[in-house]
C-alpha cells in the first residue's frame, strides 16, 4: 500500500481508539521503555511532545526529569526540513510553530546530536525490522543519517504493518516496543 494511504488509514485507526484504552496503552509503552537498558544508561533523551492520537510522551518526559536525565525536544528548521534538539526543562516556554506543534524557543540550550544518548523516534506505521512511516516531513530520516545514539520507537499493535514499503532514504530504529 502507498505510504500516504497507509499513513492516513493508520492515523484514522488510532483516532478511533477509545481515549482510556489509548492512555492505558501509552502508559504500558512508557513502562516497557523504562525497563530497557537503553533507557537506563541514557543521560540525554530526545523525545517529541506528542499530540493525540500519537502515543503519549508526557509520562516519559516526567520520568526522565525525575531520574535526572536531560530532556531534549525537537525544533524544526525550514527550509530544508531539518531538525535539531533543544533542552526542555520544567516550566520552559514553548512556541507554537508550523502544523500547530509546540517547540522550544531559540533561548533553550541546543543539545548537539552526539550528546543525545537515546532518541525516542515517533511514527505512524512500523514493521518488525524497525522501519517506519512518519508524519510525512522526513525530519527524522534526515536526522538519523549520522545519529550514533540508541533509537527506540513506541507503537500500538494497530500500527504494525509488514507491508510497509521501504525506500532508499528510510533509516530503521534499533528497537520497536509494541503493546
TrEMBL record:
Q: Which GO terms describe its biological process?
A: folic acid-containing compound biosynthetic process; tetrahydrofolate interconversion
Tell me which residues bind ATP. Answer: 3-7, 132-140
Keyword annotations of the record: ATP-binding, Ligase, Magnesium, Metal-binding, Nucleotide-binding
Any one Pfam family match given in the protein's UniProt record, by short name: 5-FTHF_cyc-lig
Q: Metal-binding as a keyword? A: yes
Q: Which residues bind substrate?
A: 49, 54
Superkingdom per UniProt = Bacteria
Q: Which molecular-function annotation in GO is an example for this chain? A: metal ion binding
Q: Which InterPro entries match?
A: FTHF_cligase, FTHF_cligase-like_sf, NagB/RpiA_transferase-like
Can you state which reaction this protein catalyses?
(6S)-5-formyl-5,6,7,8-tetrahydrofolate + ATP = (6R)-5,10-methenyltetrahydrofolate + ADP + phosphate
The EC number of this protein is 6.3.3.2
Question: Which coenzymes or cofactors are required?
Answer: Mg(2+)
Q: Tell me the protein family, please.
A: Belongs to the 5-formyltetrahydrofolate cyclo-ligase family.
What is this protein's name? 5-formyltetrahydrofolate cyclo-ligase
